[in-house]
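Structure representation.

___
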Amino acid sequence: MRIRRLHKKPAALEITAFLNLIVVLVPFLLSTAVFSRLAVLQLTLPAQSSSLENLKGDLQLEVVIRPDALEVGDRIGGLIQRIANLHAAAPGAGAGTAAAVMAGTAPAGTPAGNYDVKALSLLLEQIKARFPDKNDATVLAEPDTSYDVLVQVMDAVRVGHQVQGANVVRAELFPEISIGDAPIRARQGGS
């Protein structure tokens, strides 16, 4: 009697599902690696004092919007200049309210006055003259900062005015603006 044998074909390796998985997984892993790199904080202690004349090297410009002032500084070098608000006392409010706002001891809800955006713009023009290749700046705002104030400060950081002959022209200062939360100011005093 004749024996019948089955002729089995060698099994083919089916890798299309694996390739689909790799095609989806590789971009996901690469994007996750980039975001985890951004999560690393590089901490450096600021210098004790800093001014426009002391700036050297790489500038990391920060403009912090506080209720009582605008603080312009270098992330590494520290505070460059503090621009106090232009206060207009509210009708019926005494001089004590404006003084409390300027000192930073005003109660919550006290009007903080107007920010001196022109002085900010002039200071940023001086910084731009010293660092002409620098295009980025960070605007840090406290949680209760109004949208209008944020936009005014961003406009002052982004564009300045220069006199060319008899004309005043708009000049780019720091067009690449990043926005973030202002660092919490340490309480001054006993508590």
In short: The first helix runs from residue 16 to 38. Helices lie at 16-38, 95-103, 117-130, 147-158. The beta strands are 61-65, 69-74, 78-84, 136-141, 159-164, 167-172, 176-181. Residues 39-50, 88-113 have pLDDT under 50 and may be disordered.
